[in-house]
Amino acid sequence: MRYMKIGIKLIGLLRLVIAQPLSILRFSLSILMGKYVLERLNAIFQLENNIQYALSKTWFTSLLPDAFLVLDSNLYTTVKFLIIVSAFGAALGILGRLNLLVLAFLCFYVFGVGEGIGVFDHHTSLPSQVIFALALVPGSMKLSIDYLLMHFYNKRKNRVLDFASNPKWGLNLVLALVAITYFSAGVSKLRYGHGMSWMDGSTLGFYLKERTIKYEGGESQLIIGDSKIKENEKWKDEFGFIAHTYGNFQTKKKLNDIAEYIANNKFLVVALSIGSVLFELLAFVVFINSKYRNIYLISAIVFHLSIGSLMGISFRQYRLICFFLIDWDYYLRFTFKKLKMQHLLNG
Amino acid sequence: MRNKLFEKKAYFKIVTALILVPNIFVAILGIESFPYTCAPMFGHYIDDNTDLYLFKFEGVTDSTQVDLTRYYGKSEDLFIRHFFSKVYGSTHAISPFDSKLTESKSDFQDRMDAFFNYYSGFILSEYNLSFNQISLSVKSVDQNRNIIKYFKPIGYFDYSDKKYHALYENRN
């Protein structure tokens, strides 16, 4: 009986924690993004050619004074210090909302400089915005030192904070950010990939077989021309360049062999192409109910794990966001119902 | 006790707009500027018949030609992607690789001049390299980088007038 009581209390505690997904997300994403933005800052600082000039600026970096665009050792040290302090502050929830805002702006700044240097970091566009959103929405600070201090302060004044309930719009807004990102990716494939032709498997097949890393000496970065562009639409050159390619950075031979097998199997590569576009276009199913939301988010994790394995592009920040947005309480209730022990959840 | 700010409709509307509107804007227009993106990763079509190219920058004097690949000051993908996205630009006026909403011959000329002036200054200060011209050429390759057509110049930057000169004649 005693163990039963302890078990019920532990389950209750677990439910209290998983009822705060934005707080758990705040903790883990702040640490992960803090680490990643620090790595990116170091990589940028070590480049010989990290000069920011007029054409390098993003919308965000163009708002900053020019002094922020000359990455000397003083600025580097200051930004590094701010990243470390804000990431820990945001994760632990010490002046949490302020630190989340600072961390989000540092992400916009450092990855914006990275975009100016050459690569738009799609790994970090959604996570940076999620950090920004967490600074502003309800429910992101319930598991934090700030909240604990508020609790003690209010207790002395004979007031009780409402821990359990959060306005739903906080979680829904973060889910909307996720859904828009995936939906846009699906639309982009149809919009820029010759409509439905993207789903014939050729583009995915190309990327599965591409070995970007083995090329060097001016042979790494391909530019795509479009032979369908009419002569009278060309004025910069005779080729009609439209885009640069992305890369496949996977170097493990076994995984390369699997990617090659899929690329050469017409049925598989077409099925995966259609599946990818459908998956992305169906992003808004996360709003139907918890069941659909969970199925979609788990599919997203599997989707990124596959891309990570076959192309060496991890998107681990996306996976983390999807993982913590899963309605874990739904599975807890489902399991206890199957075990005919749902009364324990109400205990 | 609850935080009353989060229950105010005005606050909800402001935060929602602040977060979603820029994303909807870039998704509809098909552009990107960090952190906002229309997510164009793999958003193009490539098959066996797609034309693929490699860019080459060469420093040219009266007597020598120097391949500048070793003097980009960063990896080739960073250098070429920056050059293509932010400077040269897609043939389409609006491209998912940049945030610009218009394109014109004068904008193109200004960007090319700005890029080559910055880059010629960089290789001078970093590698002590100076030339009469920097030529830009492209070669046509297949997916495995086998040459289909060898390098053809498409323009050059002249150190004397500090301007980029396109070689393509069909400038409609």
Quick rundown:
The complex is a heterodimer of chains A (347) and B (172). Chain A is mainly alpha-helical and 347 residues long.
Task: Give the SSE layout.
The complex is a heterodimer of chains A (347) and B (172).
Chain A: H1 2-18, H2 21-46, H3 73-92, H4 96-117, H5 122-136, H6 145-156, H7 169-192, H8 202-209, E1 223-225, E2 241-244, H9 253-264, H10 266-281, H11 290-311, H12 316-325, H13 328-338, H14 342-345
Antiparallel strand pairs in A: 1-2
Helix pairs in contact in A: 2-3, 2-4, 2-5, 2-12, 3-4, 4-5, 5-7, 5-12, 7-10, 8-9, 8-10, 11-12
Chain B: H1 9-29, E1 32-33, E2 36-37, E3 51-60, E4 65-67, H2 76-88, H3 105-127, E5 133-141, E6 147-158, E7 163-166
Antiparallel strand pairs in B: 1-2, 3-4, 3-5, 5-6, 6-7
Helix pairs in contact in B: 2-3
Shape annotation of chain A: globular
Q: Order of strands in the sheet with the most strands of chain B? A: 4-3-5-6-7
Please provide the ordered H/E string of secondary-structure elements of chain B: HEEEEHHEEE
How much of the sequence lies in strands of chain B comes to 15-25%
Structural class of chain A: mainly alpha
* Main beta sheet strand tally, sense and closure of chain B: 5 strands, antiparallel
- Give the class of chain B from helix and strand content and strand pairing: alpha+beta
Total count of helical runs of at least 4 residues of chain B: 3
Tell me, briefly, the overall form of chain B: elongated
| Beta-strand content of chain A | under 5%
Query: Biggest interface: chains and residue counts?
Result: A-B, 102 and 86 residues
What is the β-strand count of chain A? 2
Give the strand line-up of the largest sheet of chain A: 1-2
Distance from N terminus to C terminus of chain B (CA atoms, Å) equals 68 Å
Backbone CA Rg of chain B: 21 Å
Q: Quick one: biggest sheet of chain A?
A: 2 strands, antiparallel
Overall pLDDT of chain A, averaged?
A: 93
Task: Return the average pLDDT of chain B rounded to an integer.
Answer: 93
